[in-house]
Design brief:
The structure holds two protein chains of two kinds. By secondary structure, chain A is α/β, with parallel strands linked by helices. Chain A has twelve helices and eleven strands. The two termini of chain A are about 15 Å apart. Chain B has one domain. In chain B, about 30% of the residues are buried. At the A-B interface, α3, α4 and β5 of A face α1, β2, β6, β7 and β8 of B.
Chain lengths: ~375, ~160
């Protein structure tokens, strides 16, 4: 049986399209120092470090774990690096949780970062796919998610429409105005999104996340220490991670099995039967607007085909019955390797009551989601304010 | 600190035009798949002994069954459009160094006789003219110009 563990401190950098004032270790340390300070502990209390970051080729470096860890207190401690694309950051948190839940360590630091401005993403993304079968046909995540969004819209038309994606983009950029770390804080209209330049149909410029430099970190502690460190720790109540075979016959990008399964595992562990009633808020990895609708369905927060209604009726707005991405989500900042952890941090902060201007009232349980690869990796984390 | 000052103060180093050559092995079945397209303009799939599903392009393991596949089966050069995106931002193909002209059609295709999906270009750049389920056919590169790569198929066209 796993030991109880909780997030006791979090740290984020401001997300920006370019941070020339810091190199990679300095960027990562900025978040790590803030998390350690937020937990109110001495850096020497950290017993192990887990690092998450995206593909090395994004920054044109190799094995950053060789030189990032020293800035994060790795000296004399075990260090692990996780790399599963978009789920790297969430994966680092999950690995750090294992360190504590297993009883091996009492206090563990998880740090994630990405510095996309160091490279040219359209070049590096083009090398991510298999060199024989998939390479050369596209670059970047937008064409892939264009395929996914097209499949989703075709399946649920006319119930789900293209402007439902635009409504997500409007909502999340507006939510971001209350988040001091967000990169894109914009008041835009559905028409602005619909009229923005085409990128990869049905995705248009304002349906896309920005490219970001940024880092995130959190401190996880076992029960006794956690209760001392934080007045209201965010307890890990449920975890689910699942991957699927991206080349398998009949893979369904519009209702991805890895996400459905990860959610089921997390709900089972957290004893959640009716997620939309039992949870209070969700932070979802929507790199492109249509994905918020797709993941909302795959996470079981509404029935398939109901994603459009969720945003149109205001259910998922900041003031709605089930707010999604009060932080502004990935549409407002996407340091890829960190984005999954940022969702967990935002979900944990809601439970801890530390989300500042975008804090929702009375959050008892929250959900954080992330996806990676060619929509083949999914993670779901559930936090609770009470053990 | 003013933005102009920032720029003067913080140094960056640039890599310049770096090139690093690689060579990738296609494997036994991958080689067969690509040489059949190059030499005979024919598609082959591979069948899972457990679930009976046919993979195109060829892979050696069925992921869900975790079973090794060895049985090759012929498949058609025609199939159905599963989903698509008309892409409007270009990129440099890392295999050739060439810039891809935009817009272009990007598609997921299921060939007749196959169960898995193939990624390729579709020769249509108006998303209004494309619909899932449409019939498509492979258009091969001319004889003598095929080199044993997926680019030996120029694109798929609507039938």
């Amino acid at each position: 049986m796993a030991r109880a563990a909780a997030v006791v401190g979090t740290g984020q950098t401001r997300y920006a399209n370019r941070r020339d004032d810091v190199n990679i270790p300095e960027l990562a340390r900025e978040a790590a120092s803030r998390a350690i300070e937020d937990a109110g502990i001495d850096p020497r209390d950290i017993e192990a470090v887990v690092i998450g970051s995206g593909p090395e080729v994004f920054e044109g470096v190799n094995r950053p774990d060789l030189w990032v860890g020293s800035a994060l207190g790795q000296a004399g401690r075990p260090v692990t690096r996780i790399q599963t694309g978009g789920t790297s950051g969430a994966g680092a948190t999950i690995a750090a949780f294992y360190h504590v839940a297993s009883g091996l360590h009492d206090v563990v630091l998880a740090v994630s970062y990405e510095k996309l401005s160091d490279g040219i993403p359209s070049y590096s993304f083009s090398t991510l796919s298999d060199p024989f079968w998939d390479r050369g046909f596209s670059s970047g995540a937008a064409p892939l998610v264009g395929l996914q969004s097209c499949q989703y819209l075709a399946r649920h038309a006319p119930k789900v429409r293209e402007d439902h994606g635009a409504m997500v983009a409007v909502k999340n950029r507006k939510n971001a105005m209350r988040n001091p770390y967000a990169q894109l804080q914009m008041e835009i209209t559905v028409d602005d999104v619909m009229n923005s330049s085409p990128v990869a149909s049905p995705i248009k410029a304002l349906d896309c996340c920005p490219l970001s430099d940024g880092a995130a970190a959190l401190v996880i502690a076992e029960e006794r220490r956690a209760k001392k460190m934080a007045s209201r720790p965010a307890w890990f109540a449920g975890l689910g991670a699942c991957s699927e075979s991206p080349y398998a016959p009949n893979i369904d990008m519009a209702y991805p099995e890895s996400c459905v399964r990860a959610a089921q595992l997390a709900y089972q562990m957290a004893w959640i039967y009716d997620p939309v009633r039992e949870l209070d808020v969700a932070e979802i990895f929507e790199a492109f607007s249509f994905q918020e609708l797709i993941w909302t369905e795959a996470l079981g927060l509404c029935n398939p085909g109901e994603g459009g209604r969720m945003v149109e009726s205001g259910v998922t707005a900041m003031e709605g019955e089930f707010p999604i991405n009060p932080s502004g989500g990935v549409l407002s900042a996407n340091p890829i390797g960190a984005s999954g952890m940022i969702r967990q941090i935002e979900a944990a902060m809601q439970v801890m009551g530390k989300a500042g201007a975008h804090q929702l009232p009375g959050v008892r349980k929250s959900l954080a989601h992330s996806w990676g690869g060619v929509v083949q990796f999914s993670t779901v984390t559930i936090f609770a304010g009470e053990l | 600190m003013a933005a102009a000052e920032d720029k003067k103060m913080f140094l960056v180093i640039e890599s310049g035009n770096v090139a690093q050559p690689f060579r990738w092995s296609a494997g036994t079945y991958g080689s067969k798949f690509l040489t059949e397209i190059r030499d005979n303009k024919k598609f082959w799939g591979i069948k899972c002994p457990k679930c009976g599903k046919v993979y195109v392009p060829i892979r050696s393991v069925c992921g869900p069954c975790y079973a090794e596949m060895t049985e090759l089966v012929p498949v058609s050069d025609e199939g159905n459009l599963i989903t698509f995106s008309v892409v409007s931002f270009g990129f440099v193909d890392p295999s050739t160094g060439k810039q891809k002209p935009v817009p272009y059609g990007y598609a997921v295709i299921k060939l007749d006789g196959a169960d898995s999906y193939l990624i390729h270009y579709i020769d249509e750049t108006d998303p209004e003219k494309l619909k899932a389920g449409m019939r498509v056919r492979a258009v091969f590169e001319e004889d003598g110009k095929r080199t044993g790569s997926m680019m030996d198929i120029k694109h798929f066209e609507l039938i």
